Amino acid sequence: MDILCFGEPMLEFNQQPDGRYLAGHGGDTSNAAIAAARSGADVGMFTHLGADAFGDSFMDLWAEEGVDTATVIRDPEAHTGVYFVTHGPDGHAFSYLRKGSAASRIGAGDVPVEAIGGAKILHVSGISQAISDTAADAVFEAISVARAAGVRVSYDTNLRLKLWPLARARAVIHAAMAQCDIALPGLDDALHLTGLADPDAIVDFYLGLGAGIVALTLGREGTLVATAAARRRVASIPVEAVDATAAGDTFDGAFLAELALGRTPFEAARYANAAAALSTQGYGAVAPMPRRDAVEALLGAQERP
Predict the structure, then answer these.
(1) pTM to 2 decimals?
(2) Phi, psi (5° rounding) for residue 143?
(3) 3-303: CATH, from 3.10.50.40, 3.30.70.1520, 3.40.1190.20, 3.40.190.10
(4) Per-residue model confidence as pLDDT tens digits over 212-246
(5) Residue 110 and residue 22: Cα distance in Å, rounded?
């Protein structure tokens, strides 16, 4: 397959303007998997789900989206995680019900060696490591397996300080980033993790850790993309945003899908910026994620005078 994503899927309840909550699906790497699949990539998911109705819902979702579930395990002794999204003047906020979830019980011995070796890219995140010590170990093991097999590793910092203290997050994320090929930090995360404020300095930091590609997302300021040989700021596409819950995850999936197709990092960022912009025009993580035709139509409209 093109991309194997590893992390925790979570059922989402997203607050609407009338105060009611819309049920949906979330979890950063699951979101990225779906975004990549909607962009035409061959994608698989590695995780554990509860043997519950929420887990059933994810299995149905992935089947509908064409995400391979051969490495999804159902745990009869644990639940599928849940989170709530609320909206206010400072943007969206998350509340989680995930302690003891099936995904948090994943350990290094559960890593699907054959599936990782058969992928072009393994995608993991800081959340994948923050949910438990055993899950953190499993991510390191998955990275080790990928590197041994010549599979590229993609890592999104996705810092969640409700899940772990900053000092531990820094140590673990830096150690993982030092073994990745594609670094996908967000500016807010990087400010906390590196102590640096200048985007170029942040990019230099992650290149210095060893990443071959760094795509630093800057919100409305676009994305600063860098390799050892070149760097370029790729402009964002302005839209009327209503909910940015999964904009970063959509960027990740679209960016990796383009890399898997052989695009340059700069071409991939242009496409991913458009996909992320479109994903903010509806509520929830998955529902507003665009498919390739919509992304290409937006890019085409930007090119016309």
Answers:
(1) 0.94
(2) -60, -45
(3) 3.40.1190.20
(4) 999 999 988 999 999 999 999 999 988 888 878 78
(5) 33
